[in-house]
């Protein structure tokens, strides 16, 4: 099976696959109860797979060998994170295909796992000077600059994920209580205090930059037709900010790592960090134990021959 999927190939197959992908999205929503962001991500990955497989008509002819060959080819030139995303999405698509009778046998087990070692690396954050450069680079004399400054402020001060910032609704902001309701992974809604700098940036955007439109999304495009920003658009905001600041392109997740590291340096405990970042498992938070210098210092043994 051909696995070299280019943009042209995807566009060519997208129209033919639209009906099947729409059915897949409905299944993910109704049967799996996934969030809209996850549904959109899974559908996008399935579109790549269908383009490589030969379109929706080829689904009934799939076998384990072709599925495995696609995954091996896909993983060859992409990051571990991208490969894992495809594994998860493809397994879901193949479960859907079998559940709806489009494949005669279950094929999800033919998708190989991606080898990786959890907690093997260090979280890569941003320095305080870099964060200030990213924020200062937004031209707050323009509507797009006000919007981008508000987005980056929320990412930096609250550690929001890009999809969480994109999903904010006007009704999620409680100005009187100084709180914001965030819909995170698993569609969990949690209320967070709104720090003054982030609140001021948000107010500036809503009163001085956001166009009046029917959408209830906090962050929308500044040109007609006004549409809610997607998680991909938030990533683009971060990318442009890096370019303006003269930094190499970095992901929005770096703000979460920076916030966690700063909290630990200020004396916060790992459970407190996990609560702020809204981790569902302490295993996710345990990664930051590697940068908790205050806790690690007593464990370090003196260098042989030193007086310390």
Automatic annotation (TrEMBL):
Gene3D superfamilies found in the cross-reference section: 1.10.150.130, Intergrase catalytic core
PROSITE patterns recorded: CB (PS51900), TYR_RECOMBINASE (PS51898)
Transmembrane segments: none
Keyword match DNA-binding: yes
Gene Ontology MF, one: DNA binding
Core-binding (CB) domain sequence ranges: 15-98
GO biological process: DNA integration; DNA recombination
Keywords in alphabetical order: DNA recombination, DNA-binding
Domain Tyr recombinase: from-to ranges: 121-301
Protein name listed in UniProt: Integrase
Biological source species: Trebonia kvetii
């Amino acid at each position: 099976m051909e696995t070299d999927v280019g943009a042209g190939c995807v566009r060519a197959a997208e129209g033919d696959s639209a009906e099947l992908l729409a059915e897949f999205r409905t299944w993910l929503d109704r049967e799996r109860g996934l969030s809209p962001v996850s549904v959109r991500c899974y559908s996008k990955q399935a579109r790549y797979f269908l383009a490589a497989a030969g379109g929706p008509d080829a689904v009934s002819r799939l076998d384990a060998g072709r599925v495995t060959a696609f995954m091996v080819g896909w993983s060859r030139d992409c990051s571990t994170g991208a490969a894992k995303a495809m594994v998860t999405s493809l397994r879901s698509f193949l479960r859907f295909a079998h559940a709806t009778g489009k494949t005669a046998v279950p094929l999800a087990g033919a998708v190989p796992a991606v080898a990786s070692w959890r907690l093997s690396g260090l979280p890569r954050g941003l320095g305080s000077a870099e964060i200030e450069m990213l924020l200062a680079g937004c031209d707050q004399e323009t509507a797009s600059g006000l919007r981008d400054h508000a987005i980056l402020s929320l990412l930096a001060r609250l550690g929001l994920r890009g999809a969480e910032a994109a999903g904010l609704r006007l009704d999620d902001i409680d100005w009187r209580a100084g709180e914001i309701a965030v819909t995170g992974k698993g569609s969990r809604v949690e209320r967070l205090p709104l720090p003054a700098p982030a609140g001021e940036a948000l107010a500036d955007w809503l009163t001085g930059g956001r166009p009046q439109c029917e959408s209830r999304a906090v962050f929308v495009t500044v040109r007609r037709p006004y549409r809610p920003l997607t998680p991909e658009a938030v990533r683009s905001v971060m990318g442009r900010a890096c370019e303006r600041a003269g930094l190499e392109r970095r992901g929005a997740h770096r703000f979460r790592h920076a916030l966690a590291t700063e909290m630990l340096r200020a004396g916060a405990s790992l459970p407190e960090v996990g609560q702020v970042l809204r981790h569902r498992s302490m295993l996710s938070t345990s990664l930051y134990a590697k940068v908790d210098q205050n806790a690690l210092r007593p464990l370090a043994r003196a260098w042989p021959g030193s007086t310390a």
